[in-house]
Structure prediction request, 401 residues.
Amino acid sequence: MGTIEDRWRHSITRRDALRSLAGMLAGAPLMRTQVDPRPLKDHRRAPGLDEMLTAFDFEPICFANMPLARYDYMAHGSDSEFTLRRNREAFEWVELVERAGVSADAVNTATDVLGLRPAYPIFIAPSTNQRDLHPDGDAAMYQGATAAGIPMIVVGASSVPISKIAASANGPRWSQVYPIQDLMAAREQIESFQAAGARAIVVTIDQQSSRYERDLHDRNLGGIVRVRGSAPPSSVPTAGPAKYRVNPGRLWYSWKYLDDIRPFIKGPMVVKGVTTADAARTCVEHGADGIIVSNHGGRGMDYLPSTLEVLPEIVDAVNRRIPVLVDSGFRRGSDLVKAIALGANAVCLGRAPRWGLGAFGPAGVQRLLEIIQAEFREAMATTGRTTLAALDRTAIRTNFP
Ligand SMILES: Cc1cc2nc3c(=O)[nH]c(=O)nc-3n(C[C@H](O)[C@H](O)[C@H](O)COP(=O)(O)O)c2cc1C
Prediction:
């Protein structure tokens, strides 16, 4: 074999060479939007920020800006992804009832949730790995949310330190935690978040035993994508909760945990991950000052119901004793109107602002939230309601199966 062939054989492969060439081109300023693991099927060019019309428009841009495994980490639901789909499908079973005579300018969308008075009933839901979306991660999300006047729930396992997030903007902020078995460690975490300015602590209790099959499939796509949380079959544990695919961080706690940590929490305690009326009542009994109806965006146990379907019975069970927030699947202003009409006090957005961040950074988060705010105002005016208090169940028609 000649020297040239030998060098070719022992240096980089043709595939590696092509990959680096593609990477170099993708990194060039003129081609920045072309870092696309799968082509944007119907797009001939990448649209700019000022061309975004709905929250959905941000998703393909965000997708194009990141490797498949990072996108799938955000997009996936558990197992067969029934709950993930159901969360969106549920909005098709609720229609708006039109009432004429109210202009969008006359609508007051302001609300009051546990001492916060945002101009819209919208929060950013806590979510991990925001550095997958932007180099400044959660700090960039916080900047975008604050610019749009939206409070943020900072995830406990944030991808940049809480001190950096706190220093990057000055909007209202809550912090989220998961149950920790060592109560002293739990106390330390809660106190550190409160010291950093969290005005409430959100305790996520969904007993999720999530398995993300999408990620497992990604392993087969060339073997180079980064996969998280999906152990290869050879390392499936044979003992402990993991034997049953249960995340060892979950399914160990009981309601008493809320009593145990309540003394550490100075402001309101909000419990996230409620999907039944019973659980909602129990949260109230255990000192919750608010709840978030959530199936973790379809990332918890699959075949949980959509949150929109269970919202009315939970609202009835709580009976106005504490505020009820809701998340999972919300993308449009009209989605929010439906939840408020069913009795929610506010809605948290998970993936949608992540698309904004991944597509255009903090400016993308701000723009996406402003689009949803405008849609929300338009839908409120269409139902003829000028305040959130007036947005009751007569503003919608529900056809849940
Ligand atoms: C990538 C990602 C990571 C998440 N991480 C957390 C978390 O660490 N803690 C938590 O309480 N919820 C977490 N969530 C769930 C969100 O808070 C929220 O419940 C969910 O995203 C709402 O559904 P949506 O994405 O359809 O809006 C995460 C969601 C996503 C998409």
